[in-house]
Amino acid sequence: MSTYSTPTTTLETEFTTPTPTRAMLQRAYRLMRTAAELARIYEENKAVTAKYVHATARGHEAIQLAAAFHLRPTDYAAPYYRDDAMLLGFGLTPYELMLQLMAKRDDPFSGGRTYYSHPSLRRAGFPVIPHQSSATGMQAIPATGMAHAIKYLEGQHLLPDAEEQPVVLCSIGDGAMTEGEVAEALQMAVLHQLPIIYLVQDNDWGISATGREMRAMDAFEFAAGFKGLHRLQFDGADFLASHAGMEEAFDYARRTRGPVLVHAKCPLLGHHTSGVRREWYRGDNLAAHTLNDPLPRFHQQLLELGYSEEMLAELGEEAKATVEADYQRALAAPAPDPATYTEHEFAPPAITEEAGERSPAGADKVLMVDAALHAVDDILQEFPEALFYGQDVGGELGGVFREAALLAKKYGDARVFNTPIQEAYIVGSTAGMSAVGAKAIVEIQFADYIWPSLNQLVEELSKSCYLSNGKFPVQSLIRVPVGAYGGGGPYHSGSIESTLLTIRGIKVVYPSNAADMKGLLRAAFLDPNPVVLLEHKGLYWSKVPGTEDAKTLEPATGYVIPLGKAAVAQEADSGKLRNGETCVVITYGMGVHWAKTASKQFPGQVEVLDLRTLNPLDYDAVEAAVRRHGKALVLTEEPLMNSFAESLAGRIQRTCFRNLDAPVFTLGAANLPAIALNVELEKQMLPSAEKVGVALAELLGY
User: Fold this and answer.
1) Residue 397, class by beta-carbon neighbours within 10 Å (0-12 exposed, 13-18 middle, 19+ buried)?
2) What are the coiled-coil residue ranges (predicted)?
3) Orientation of helix 94-101 relative to helix 22-44, angle to 10°
């Protein structure tokens, strides 16, 4: 059984902070008692309060309040799920916290959608608290993205409150510090010297695992490896020491605009959560931790500073009365209207109509890769809050496909820059960027490398709008080169759209030609939601036989296409349509070009519907095309089994059954785990114009 001992205060510089004011000390004591009363009333009424899982701050109140007292309304905060005392320190009321505890309609954070002490708040006079997940390490990346946005916007003179020297507070438990994503965040904070404080509340427990089981060193020792990360360590159960320590941390971050890690030891006095009760596994350890309860320690310190027992008792009674009254109010508060359950999946789109010139007079033809480059260039010129980063997109190279060529030289390393091989940071940081007001365009070098970022994409980006009740949609444009193009092999040829399309709350766009690339990229940037833009490498240069149509006249600057609108890439002959001799191929990306090439064998008989956006899907266009022709082929480059294409085919069978003259055909890649390196093996695995031709012959002859 582990034991708890009071840590030795270790500081790299001497504290110079004066003693807190009398009013501050009284407020701290009242709020510490309030946090303790919250834990008490929750435990006494656990039949009600434990309906939904919660955790409380018991044992952590001192460090949480000390941190809260140093935040300004111009700052940003990323609390973790045990930080209800910190939220009280910000100025939130017990009633507001209880509304979330009981999942009530007027929960100010999520409207009853997410757990207790999972805040998301935009309110005058308070630090901004963007939505985050359950904060077991993942929050470090979006929080660092906030600091990155502050640093960038300051440098561009775009931050209205720059004179306040805003900083980010990222609160985290010691168990979460072992997450690999935390190391990614620390790396970038040090590399770019970002104004962020990582507050590690170390109680030496995970759920039932102790520190000695989970880590080879504590967070203070771990952070020593990040040169340029200012470190502080002190007793987080002592309010006076914590207040002085956090003063040093905030002063350093505001003054130097660099990162700080605070390691504060705390006892864990409550349950890990209401669902994992302390009596199941703590034993004598709980008694050892109780010796360091911050509340009696602070009580004694205040007596020594001249406060009377009567005054402290009065503050305690005030806290108790407030909590009990707020509990009764929260019990009586209304539940959410069930009819609102679908609201805020997405923020309303910025672009709803096609605009600008698609084929301006005198325009030259442009390759798809250059259309993308020009679209990003136009955005960077027009929107100073926009920036572009990813692996190898900065510096001299400008992307492995030259899709960012010369942008870093044109706009500077602060706007267009390389990142480490950190896909989680590349994607997750955009959530923090968005919350502060920067607008990130990022790139994953190859689709096959996107998997380390899915944690951030799912937990931090896709859920933010819905779980914050619409307060924090994440504007994020994630460019992903995708698809096979002749000998790319197993790690540079993958198609990933079906995996992405299982993630609700993100949009997925897939252009098939240069004009659509330019118009859709701009719409994706302007959309207030997370958008993944899939860019087929085999279409970039129109070098693959049959892809010549991917090269188009270049649209004018500002041309935009609304997301969720399909386009007819090739029409069928009206006479053959009337005679029932036609079919439609429903596809996207490379499939458009396979279908157009194959259809030359069947002149006038094949319509090609280019979906362009896979989510939101223009299903009205799909239904209309199927009803026009009565025969449909859904074509994809992905392995077919359990794919988006099969799902779409099944939906067509259900909604268009009476209009079909044949089963809905599907064609995709072989159901294999990877694309083989050898080009002949690759050809065997993938669809092709020849294979599409065989399928069309069967379908038209059905």
Assistant:
1) middle
2) none
3) 30
Is residue 611 within 8 Å of residue 617, measured between CB atoms? yes
Catalytic residue flag (residue 492): yes
Percentage of residues in the chain having pLDDT higher than 90: 83
Residue 94: what residue type?
A: P
514 three-state secondary structure: helix
User: 404 burial class (0-12, 13-18, 19+ CB within 10 angstroms)?
Assistant: buried
Side chain identity, residue 242? S
CB 9 within 8 A of CB 235: yes
Domains and CATH numbers, the chain: 22-131+140-340 (3.40.50.970), 365-553 (3.40.50.970), 567-701 (3.40.50.920)
Distance CA 87, CA 82 (A): 10
Q: Could you tell me if residue 480 is left (phi over 0), alpha (psi between -120 and 50 degrees) or otherwise beta?
A: beta
Q: In sequence order, which residues have a C-beta less than 8 Å from that of residue 605 and are 6 or more positions away?
A: 572, 573, 576, 581, 582, 583, 599, 696, 700
Determine contact, residues 80/272, Cβ cutoff 8 Å. no
pLDDT, tens digit, 9 for 90 and up, residues 552-611: 999 999 999 999 999 999 999 999 999 999 999 999 999 999 999 999 999 999 999 999
CB 389 within 8 A of CB 396: no
Query: What count of Cα atoms within 13 Å lies in the side-chain half-sphere of residue 18?
Result: 4
Helical axes 61-68 vs 239-256, angle rounded to 10°? 40
Distance, CA of 689 to CA of 372 (rounded, Å): 26
The total of other beta-carbon atoms located within 10 Å of residue 192's CB is 18
CA–CA separation, 667 and 635 (whole Å): 5
- How large is the average pLDDT for residues 632-646? 97
- 138 Cβ partners below 8 Å, 6+ apart? 132, 179, 181, 428, 455, 456, 459, 460
Dihedral-angle region of residue 406 (phi above 0 means left; psi in -120 to 50 means alpha; beta otherwise): left
Q: Of these residues, 70, 289, 299, 492, which one is catalytic? A: 492
Residue in the block written with tokens 């100025």: 91
Span 298-314, average pLDDT: 96
User: Phi/psi zone of residue 613: left (φ > 0), alpha (ψ -120 to 50 degrees), beta?
Assistant: beta
Coil, strand, or helix at residue 263? strand
Residue pair 74/254 in contact (Cβ under 8 Å)? The answer is: no
Alpha carbon of 133 to those of 269, 418, 552, 646, 649: distances in Å?
24, 27, 43, 32, 34
At residue 126, what is the residue type?
F
Q: Which residue has the tokens 């490398």?
A: 449
**Widest Cα–Cα separation across the chain:** 98
Which tens digits make up the pLDDT trace of 42-53? 999 999 999 999
pLDDT at 162: 84
Cβ burial, residue 338 (10 Å; 0-12/13-18/19+): exposed
Half-sphere exposure of 416 (CA within 13 A, CB side): 24
**HEC profile of 60-114:** CHHHHHHHHCCCCCCCEEECCCCCHHHHHHHCCCHHHHHHHHCCCCCCCCCCCCC
Token output for 590: 């490379």
Backbone φ and ψ of 20, nearest 5°: -55, 155
